[in-house]
């Protein structure tokens, strides 16, 4: 049986092979399509890695509940809003709860793909930097997910309801995705990258509306009981750290290339005639013509 991450690996390999063929072709159309194919292959490979990590992550709850409880207690010490209060505000409205369940389950991947396509087509110069931030954040998150952390809906005694189970919309029922990867929230991280990326890359006056997407995502992951507020806060911190590291690496690479680039040879000076002291040749010829022979009378001068 093909698992979700294997589809990504397959299509990433196909696009990587297509990239090689297009670049060897050398035609203008082939060279125009090759970058799109190569970038899509990279994104699919990252997506497959994320799905594979979720599939292979530990499902044993040993220690995960304790870590979840520690996060919950830390939030109370920091006086962060209560996830219980926010969830209870929407529970009386089943349609709204179902919307948040569906939004949590299905929005993050299509929106991210649409954003990357838009960025590649309309703002190509911004694409590499945001792709690197996306890859770095996802990679660091996967390493942190090795340590299982129970989400709020799996903690007993705090009053959080598993809305996915209640309405039959749980994305974890098939067992193909780990539900113990609460810290940090990849959903929130990707949404923040999309929202800030649109604001950064675009110059449209409507670009600020893109920030509504990470805000809505954060509310969705909290009211469905899938994440803590701290999961989103840590995602912001990781994105900022990855962006700073990427910019620092870019500066080092630019400086290295600048220092290693050979200096252009100076243009050889053109051969010039002997310098004439006191002015140009024409001026000197006039002066010579006005010189008076020694012993010449005043009449001769006149």
Structure characterization notes:
With 302 residues, the protein is an all-alpha fold. The chain has 2 domains: 1-56; 60-259, no CATH class. It has 13 helices and no strands. The longest helix is centred in the last third of the chain and has 32 residues, at 229-260. The radius of gyration is 34 Å and the shape is elongated. 29% of the residues are buried. Mean pLDDT is 79; it is low at 275-280 and 295-302.
Can you lay out the helices and strands and say which pair or pack?
Blueprint: H1 4-25, H2 28-56, H3 64-77, H4 83-90, H5 94-106, H6 108-122, H7 127-144, H8 163-166, H9 186-201, H10 212-223, H11 229-260, H12 281-290, H13 298-301
Helix pairs in contact: 1-2, 2-7, 5-10, 6-9, 7-9, 7-11, 9-10, 9-11
In a few lines, what is going on in this structure?
By secondary structure, the protein is mostly helical. Helix content is 65%, strand content 0%. It has helices at residues 4-25, 28-56, 64-77, 83-90, 94-106, 108-122, 127-144, 163-166, 186-201, 212-223, 229-260, 281-290, 298-301.
Number of strands: 0
Query: Mind describing the biggest β-sheet?
Result: none
Q: Over the alpha carbons, how many angstroms does the gyration radius reach?
A: 34 Å
* Residue share in helix: 55-70%
Beta fraction of the residues? under 5%
Report the order of strands and helices.
HHHHHHHHHHHHH
Terminal-residue CA separation: 118 Å
User: So how many helices?
Assistant: 13
Give descriptors for this structure.
disordered C terminus, 302 residues, mainly alpha, elongated, 2 domains, 13 helices
């Amino acid at each position: 049986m093909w698992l979700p991450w294997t589809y990504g690996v397959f299509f990433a390999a196909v696009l990587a092979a297509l990239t090689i063929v297009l670049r060897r072709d050398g035609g203008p159309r082939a060279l125009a399509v090759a970058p799109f194919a190569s970038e899509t292959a990279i994104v699919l490979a990252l997506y497959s890695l994320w799905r594979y990590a979720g599939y292979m992550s530990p499902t044993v709850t040993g220690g995960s509940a304790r870590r979840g409880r520690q996060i919950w207690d830390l939030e109370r010490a920091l006086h962060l809003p209560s996830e219980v209060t926010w969830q209870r505000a929407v529970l009386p409205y089943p349609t709204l709860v179902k919307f948040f369940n569906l939004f949590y389950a299905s929005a993050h991947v299509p929106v991210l793909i649409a954003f990357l396509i838009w960025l590649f087509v309309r703002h190509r110069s911004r694409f590499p930097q945001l792709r690197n931030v996306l890859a770095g954040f996802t990679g660091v998150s996967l390493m942190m997910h090795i340590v299982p952390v129970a989400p709020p809906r799996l903690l007993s005694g705090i009053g959080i309801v598993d809305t996915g189970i209640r309405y039959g919309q749980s994305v974890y029922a098939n067992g193909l995705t780990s539900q113990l990867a609460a810290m940090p929230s990849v959903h929130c991280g990707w949404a923040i990258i999309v929202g800030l990326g649109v604001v950064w890359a675009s110059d449209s006056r409507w670009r600020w509306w893109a920030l509504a997407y990470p805000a809505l995502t954060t509310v969705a992951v909290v009211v469905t009981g899938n994440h803590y507020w701290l999961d989103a806060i840590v995602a912001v911190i990781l994105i900022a750290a990855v962006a700073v590291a990427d910019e620092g690496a870019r500066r080092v690479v630019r400086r290295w290339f600048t220092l290693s680039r050979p200096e252009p040879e100076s243009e050889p000076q053109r051969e010039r005639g002997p310098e004439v002291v006191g002015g140009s040749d024409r001026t000197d010829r006039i002066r010579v013509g006005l010189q008076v022979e020694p012993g010449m009378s005043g009449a001769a001068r006149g």
